[in-house]
Amino acid sequence: MATTYSYYPGCTSHSTAIEYIEASLAVIDALGIGLNELPDWCCCGAASAHNLSTSLALGLSAFNLAEAHKTGRDLVIPCAGCYGNLAQADHVMRHDEKERQRFEKQFDFNYDGQVKMLSLVDLLAREELRPAIKDLVKKPLKGLKVVCYYGCAIVRPGAITGVDDTENPRRIDKMMADLGAEVIDWSCKVDCCGADLGLTDAEKTAELVNKIVDYAVAAEADCLVTSCALCEANIDIRQQRLPILYFTEMMAEAFQIGDRQRWWKKHFNDPSKLF
Amino acid sequence: MEKKLGVFVCWCGSNIAGSIDVDLAVAEAAKLDGVVHAENYMYMCSDPGQQLVKDTISEKGLDGVVVACCSPRMHENTFRKAAGAVGLNSYLLEIANIREQCSWVHQNNKPLATAKAVSIIEGTLDKVKENLPLETITIDLTKRVCVVGGGIAGIMSALDLANADYDVAIIEREPAIGGHMAQISQTFPYFHNILELLQKKIDEVKAHPRIKLYLNSEVEVLDGYVGNFNVTIKTRPAFVDPAKCTACGKCLEVCPVSVADEFNRGLSQRGAIFRYNQTEGARIPVLEQRDCLHFVDVEDVEMDAGAGEKCTACVDVCPENAIDLGTIRTFNEEFVGAIVMATGYDLYSPAKMPEYGAGKLPDVIDALAFERLLDPTGPTKGQVLRPSDGQVPKKVVFIQCVGSRDPERHKAYCSRACCMYTAKQARLYRQQVEDGTAFISYMDIRSDSRDFEEFVQQGMEEENLVYIRGRVAKVIQEDGFLRVFTTDTLSSRQLEIEADLVVLAMAMEPKAGIRDLAKKMNVTIDGDAFLSETHIKLYPVESSTKGVYLAGCGQSPKDITDTVSQALATAGKIQTMFSNETLIADPLIAEVKNDVCSGCGICIDICPYGARLMNDFTRITDVNQAVCQGCGACIAACPNKACELINSTSRQFIRMIGDFAGKAEAV
Questions:
Q1: pLDDT score for B666
Q2: How many domains is chain A partitioned into structurally?
Q3: Number of other residues whose CB lies within 10 A of the CB of residue A1
Q4: Which end of chain A is more exposed for a tag (fewer CB within 10 A), N or C?
């Protein structure tokens, strides 16, 4: 398992989602996977760039793609938003000859399509990692009822993410089951959490979040597991009924590694009572 | 001996003469090697023009003619006939296309256009010089037909052909004919009772002395070619002897098996021995080997029929000894001249729609299941009842375009019949449940045939169907009802509907197994596995293989009206073919130079028509003259240049190219 990947941290890894990144890095380390941070990565454009200018949005991601190509390694992108932007740019480069040539020239690199964009779910929920993950489980998450929530960017559109079960994704579900948790099938796996409306339309976001939490509670879940920092933030801060956890925090708990107590303090709904 | 050649240049009014100097072209042509006569005329294809060609051939004893005019697609046949009428072998006449490929595209440069026209004429003359006189090929014709599929397309096609006094064999995979039409309750746009309509046609088929029915059967092998097909038919055992069975139904009661009834789309259960459907023709029970406990230990029931030895409840109870579980499959052969592919459709599976419950929610059903609910002979005796609890649903949501028009995840095409049958189903529901509400989620309403638009409007205005424009995001089960999340894109509102029943108008797709069958029949299919016609406009019922015709939904999704029209067109086409005693084929086909062919077989794989085969005796390949279409694929593929297209040989073409390209040295 000595593979090494390039790693694109994104801004939330240094701020609101620090617990996600710490948990993820701990798990990745435990699995013996190497990560090299991209030396000169820049902002992915977040939610703003593509609203201002397609060219700017593509350009920022193309710059990061160029950096990744120089390493020749697949790029791991924990933040769902960053992943969405980079995967979108990769898709354009793959299918639009003209744009590809433009950015190759601009950033002085050769796009060969060999560097894959990987979300953390792409990286960790691979079929071949399952035995290693099961081996690392020290404390199975027995009796814990979880619903898995995927949100949008790491799933859709399928043509860009390569996900074939966009309406009913199952990869995190499978992993949680491998960790020993009781996975509940439910109806809101890919519903919208409100995303950036969290900043501009709090009321609408509350409505969307409440619906998701209603269904999770109706499904008798103890907690909701996600892989996106924005989903986590939106859902966690707007209700007091359900703890929200990152899937890598669940892995770390099952592996009994990392500074979990400290991570849990970053959550609004305290998950510590679950474990 | 050198041929005496004639050149006839047509003005085509000003079409050609406007941008080509036809006098100069004639003068130049007259100087060319072998030309003994050259002239021009205003309309060569007119009667006097043709007469001119004919007279000159006779007077000057021409043995090669070039008519420089429009595309050979327009008048090659005209001039070849004219030449044939005065005794010149028609394959010694060729068209030089100086209109589409010259005058029309060089309208502003007369000297250049004229020079090009002369070089086209010169090249064509060089081809004629080496053309061989040919005779058409005569092929035997067996005036019998095999119809694959006994749905309404197969039935209508077979009846028409049988009524024209031709023998027809219908091969039907299921235990009864009628196809999907037998599952449907009423028609649009006139609410005709389908069972009545269909039963009449089924009775006609069964009583017709010219029609032979192979039920439980499939095409195993197809050999031969147009006019001379040999179809091997595999028939699964039915186990019940129709001569002895009195249809008393005792066996149905004792069978211990209970599985979902496919004909009723899983809305009812059936035994391993069961009545396939409620048509008169299906009164005699059939036994499905795969479900039967008698064969429970038999690994491959199809291979080892008769090997089972467990449960014999039905055999024991039958008062007529009509059931023999030792029956085995049989093979039959039919020799026919033409084949109709009426293979039909399946509905795309709701299991592929996780957002609508992936086929697991009992009250989310597909459109054919809803038809079963509407059918008086169906599992609810025609009452619309919820599958989960048998209650009358008060709110029904019909969703159109499920799996259709969704290129990213499902089918890109429109399934064409759904707009209308959904309107029909919703109207029938509203007529039955007066205090019920029918919501229809739609993208567009496609009601583009006679009385269709009126039918939909009537539903909206008189039966208060609630049409909501937008795609349903998801359907989830709640306590006692289904919650439907959708949007009304006309008012930009998100909606949630608490529904009792959801009906999915699933996409139509070609019948399962069509890829294998198409391969056997050597018929091309498109990317969605629909059978391809030769030409969408002009040859709409001809498949890529001569003598194999298409009818119904196997070719593309369509409603009953269009299916029947196409089936009758197919029957008409076949009758035209059968109006001759033999078939005539064009001799412009591939031939093999026996001394050059190494028998590598590349041409066999490359031939799209199955016209090339290995001669087991000589170990080189043959050309089946009846099947070859002269497409030239084998000529391009042959590594030894052992294949040639008659009268379009490489030698001829290289000389022509030399002429066109400025008299390069010919090989």
A1: 36
A2: 2
A3: 9
A4: N
Across A13-28, b (16+ Cβ under 10 Å) vs e yields beeebebbbbbbbbbb
In A, minimum Cα distance to B476 occurs at A187
Strand partners, B334: B231
| Set of chain A residues whose Cβ sits within 8 Å of the Cβ of B355 | 167-168
Alpha-helix residue ranges (DSSP H) falling in B10-71:
14-17, 22-30, 47-60
Closest Cα in chain A to B483: A187
Query: Three-state DSSP class for B212?
Result: strand
Which residue in this structure is represented by tokens 């035997």? Answer: B140
User: Would the pLDDT of B461 be above 90?
Assistant: yes
Task: Indicate yes or no: CB of B355 within 8 angstroms of CB of A158.
Answer: no
B479: contact with A, CB 8 A cutoff: no
CB B259 within 8 A of CB B272: yes
Q: Which residue has the higher pLDDT, B309 or A88?
A: A88
Measured from the Cβ of residue B209, the count of other Cβ atoms closer than 10 Å reads 7
pLDDT in tens, B212-266: 999 999 999 998 889 999 999 999 988 999 899 998 989 999 999 999 999 999 9
Cβ contact B639:B580 at 8 Å: no
Start-to-end C-alpha separation, chain B = 20
Q: What is the DSSP string of B85-119?
A: HTT--GGGEEEEE-IIIIITT-TT-HHHHHHHHHH
Structure confidence at residue B627 (pLDDT) = 82
CATH number, domain of A93, equals 1.20.1050.140
Nearest CA to A147 out of A234, A219, A72, A71 is that of A219
Chain A contact present for B358, CB below 8 A: yes
Of B432, B400, B405, nearest in space to B502 by CA: B400
- Write the DSSP assignment of B451-504 as a string of letters: THHHHHHHHHHHS--EEEES---EEEEETTEEEEEEEETTTTEEEEEEESEEEE
> Which burial class, exposed, middle or buried, applies to A145 when counting CB atoms under 10 A from its CB (0-12, 13-18, 19+)?
middle
The mean pLDDT of A194-218, rounded to a whole number, is 93
Distance CA B196, CA B193 (A): 6
Tell which CATH classification among 3.40.1050.10, 3.40.190.10, 3.10.290.10, 3.50.50.60 matches the domain B347-509.
3.50.50.60
Taking the C-alpha atoms of residue B70 and residue A42, their distance in angstroms, rounded to an integer, is 64
Interface with chain B: mutation pick from A155, A165, A167, A186, highest number of B CBs within 10 Å: A167
Interface test with A, best of B355, B475, B496, B504 (most A CBs within 10 A): B355
Which DSSP category does B293 fall into?
G
Kindly determine whether residue A167 and residue B408, on different chains, have CB atoms separated by under 8 Å: no
CATH T-level topology, domain B5-134: Rossmann fold (3.40.50)
- Cβ contact A167–B476 (<8 Å): no
Contact A126, A198 (CB under 8 A): no
Contact B187, B194 (CB under 8 A): yes
Q: What are the structure tokens assigned to B370, written together?
A: 């809803």
In this predicted complex, what is the ipTM? 0.79
Q: How confident is the model over A239-256, as a mean pLDDT?
A: 96
Which fold does the domain B586-646 belong to in CATH? Alpha-Beta Plaits (3.30.70)
- Dihedral sign, CA of A94, A100, A101, A103? negative
Nearest to A166 among B358, B409, B474 (CB): B409
Same domain as A252, residue A149: yes
pLDDT band, residue B300 (cuts 50/70/90): low
Which residues 174-203 on chain A approach chain B with CB closer than 8 angstroms? 187
Of the three residues A120, A154, A185, the one that is the final residue of a domain is A120
Domain range for A74 is 4-120
How does residue B330 score in pLDDT terms, banded at 50, 70 and 90? very high
